[in-house]
Amino acid sequence: MENTQIVILDFGSQYTQLLSRRVREIGVFSEVLDFTTTAIDLKKYKNLKGIVLSGGPSSVYAQDAYSIDIEIFNLNIPILGVCYGMQLITELHNGKVELADNQEFGKAILNIDFKEDKLFKNINDKKQVWMSHADHLIKMPEGFIKTAHTDACIAAISNEEKKLYGIQFHAEVTHSQEGTQIIKNFVYDICQAKKDWSMEIFIEQKVKEIKEIVKDEQVILGLSGGVDSSVAAALISKAIGKQLTCIFVDTGLLRKDEAKKVMDSYTTLFDMNIKLVDASYTFYLALEGVNDPEQKRKIIGKEFVEVFNHQAKEMHNAKFLAQGTIYPDVIESSVKGHSSKMIKSHHNVGGLPKDLKFELLEPLRTLFKDEVRKVGKELGLDQKIVNRHPFPGPGLGVRIINEVTKEKADILREVDDIFITKLLDWNLYDKVSQAFATILPVKTVGVMGDNRTYDYVVALRSVNTIDFMTATSSHLPWEFLDEVTNEIINKVNGVNRVVYDITSKPPGTIEWE
Ligand code: XMP
Questions:
Q1: Which parts form a coiled-coil structure per UniProt (predicted)?
Q2: Distance from the CA of 510 to the center of ligand 1, in angstroms?
């Protein structure tokens, strides 16, 4: 709260998180809060300099339209309404919004009508902006002037005296050519915010805070080898050293040599206790005969919690449980505007029984993924860990289609290792967002030398994405795929066919299960 200078009130737009990230990228800490946040709540923010009202999927004229506490307009804090936010400002100031005949989705050209407007300082006329709206303003709100338009709509409004601004377009989206400058104008010129957000400052503050909270108590953390829990561990160890014990569970569903690599890099890099628990046998046993993806996920989640709890109970003196929860997890589980349908039950460490009575320590819960990576780099974490592609909580369990067996897990580990090593060799790893292999429950006929083979099919998948909500398949060079395929067929016993998945998300998901 101390750092927060800009608050984004969320009305459920798919771009809300992006708004917050853009503000942070220019050096000011911002937080996303639910649209029901009141003026009294906001008064608790000592350094609040500006408020952004996000976009949203509903219409301001609908019966149960989301609105804000109108006392917020009396706080004398600048407000920028984006899309739905601008329409809401309009509706609440006696203007009118209606369903448009000319709906705009995608690129539009911005014609600036009032160049002196503070929001448009140093902005060139007739630049491209990104639109995504069905409704538009048909009557200006009282006390406001129109400051820009497109061929189809009133694109910006302002009331400089009251420091209220509205834009119909999405300045936070990179397709809006001068979007960052518009956000800078709002944050620095209009709100007079101070540049005070950087990862160095974050680390300094958190280390101090963790020391104050933990004092001389013990902390445990479930390490997964992924970026978030690794960075959380590094940060906590910087603050309290050996008072931290990390537990790393080998589920049998990890990648090749993963347990060894994690143990090696952590024991050499950090001052902490780390314990490896080999629970692979228990996991394979629990998964025997299970084909259904959701059931598999639930079993893996449950087993994980059980192993972890058992270990935790052995550490009688631990008072805190640390987790690598990051900001998108927090927003998604706390902001009411999000009502997306459950496609898969994502699993992370959680569901701890009440009798453990740990206090939670989640030092990364205000950070976005790219910020977490920066913190990792600052703390000296191995680049390979920091820049790693995401790996799902249930691990290879969701990459072995149908029943999980050790035999298939071993085959898949080899295939995956060849694919990833080749991506690194060809300098392609950092150019794609996530790459992996999946083993299918089908055997097909092949020929090797003069012999008939009857072996498994594996599918390679590589996607490019910004937020993992939508994704397209990576256009990997044909020669590369050829080389990887040859190596897999020649080196991995049990596989005689390789396919490349080019499905985008949607309609596919990234993982196959
Ligand atoms: P999907 O398959 O839903 O995946 O398109 C989107 C991203 O989430 C990862 N993923 C998971 N991550 N626990 C996680 O922590 C899970 O249960 C899980 N399932 C999928 C997936 O690898 C991709 O990056």
A1: none
A2: 7
